[in-house]
Amino acid sequence: MSFFRITDPKKRDELISEYMMAKERIYINNISQRLGSLAHQETLKTTFQPIVEASKESSDAITKELKPIKREIENLNNQLLQTEIKRKRSVAEKLVDGDTGKNALDQYFSIFKSEDGDYFLGKEKKNR
Fold first, then answer.
1. How many whole angstroms from its chain centre is CA 116?
2. Global pTM exceeds 0.90
3. Are 83 and 91 a contacting pair, CB within 8 Å?
4. How many whole angstroms separate alpha carbon 97 and alpha carbon 104?
5. What are the C-alpha distances in Å from 57 to residues 23, 54, 70?
6. 3-state secondary structure 62-84
């Protein structure tokens, strides 16, 4: 059954032949495009693969060299942080438990601890 009727057999065979040739031409063009695309991809791969590998190797080498430096920087930062904490504690201890004499950080507004354990500001404890 055909979707349209052709009564002339010669014309019908000609149309069918044109259809089959068009179908074959489309198939061949499609295959050519696919193969061309594959060939293009293969060319790109062979061209750029050495560059990609060299970049990966160099980045791995750089990363390998930077890891110890990063660890050392982290250690130095931790040491500096601990030193800063100790320094701040020292200043705080001087403020709280410091002398009321000339060695006090601030003789008038520093916090001092008396012999009986009370805290006060200034040179001496005043009773109220």
1. 58
2. no
3. no
4. 9
5. 50, 5, 20
6. HHHHHHHHHHHHHHHHHHHHHHH
Whose tokens are 């200034």? That residue is 122
Q: Are the C-beta atoms of residues 123 and 107 closer than 8 Å to each other? A: yes
DSSP state at residue 121: E
Q: Hey, which bits of 13-118 come out as E strands?
A: 111-113
pLDDT digit string (tens) for the chain, length 128 residues: 455 677 788 888 888 889 999 999 899 888 888 877 878 888 888 999 999 899 999 999 999 999 999 999 999 999 999 888 888 777 666 666 555 455 555 656 666 677 787 777 766 666 65
- Judged by DSSP in three states, 26 sits in helix
**Gap between the Cα atoms of 11 and 108, Å rounded:** 119
